[in-house]
Design a protein that fits this description.
Residues 22-43 are annotated as: Disordered. Pfam families: Replicase (PF03090). The protein has 152 residues and is α+β, with helices and mostly antiparallel strands. Helices cover 29% and strands 27% of the residues. The chain has 5 helices and 7 strands, in the order E-H-E-E-H-E-E-H-E-H-E-H. The strands form 2 sheets. Strands 1-6-7-5 form a 4-stranded antiparallel sheet, sandwiched between helices. A 3-stranded antiparallel sheet has the order 3-2-4. The longest helix has 18 residues, at 125-142. The chain is globular and about 35 Å long. It starts with 6 loop residues before the first strand and ends in a 10-residue tail after the last helix. The relative contact order is 0.20.
Length: 152
């Protein structure tokens, strides 16, 4: 189940937390791939159960609702230094630990909620290209893992 060392931190005012949590539940597929520590052992679970696991597929197939960036060895608050917009959700170590600047091993995922962009073959190519350009530029600016492709 969910690791006690890694818990989501909402980077939004408390009044928005409920809205973001509901959006996460709403956009996560009804049956979603999820896994504990080892991603290769993922399996499909119902949404409410899947969201209790460490690794979860939150973007439905054929759609992008969240831009997710995997930060390895990059401070989870790097977005502030790079003058990027605040993420809606940060999944990281507990807050007191991530504030320690001298810590060398960071690991976090930044979630940015975006308007749903269909990515199927029938979808308009312009919005897909725009989302991909934004994702690529933000990934480079953040120093996020280039090989992270989601869904887990």
């Amino acid at each position: 189940m969910t690791s006690e060392m890694i818990q989501p931190v909402l980077a939004a005012p408390s009044c928005a937390q409920t809205i973001l949590t509901e959006r996460l539940k709403r956009t996560t597929p009804p049956q979603s791939s999820s896994a504990s520590e080892e991603k290769k052992k993922s399996r499909r679970r119902f949404r409410d159960t899947a969201l209790t696991y460490l690794h979860v597929q939150v973007n439905p197939p054929g759609n992008v609702c969240w831009l997710i960036f995997d930060l390895d060895d990059v401070h989870p608050l790097e977005w502030q230094e790079k003058l990027l917009p605040p993420p809606n959700i940060i999944v990281s170590k507990p807050v007191p630990e991530i504030l320690k600047k001298d810590e060398k091993e960071y690991s976090a995922h930044l979630f940015y909620a975006i308007q749903n962009v269909p990515t199927t073959r029938a979808a308009n190519r312009a919005p897909i290209g725009f989302v991909n350009d934004v994702r690529r530029k933000m990934r480079i600016t953040l120093g996020a893992d280039r090989d992270y492709t989601g869904p887990l």
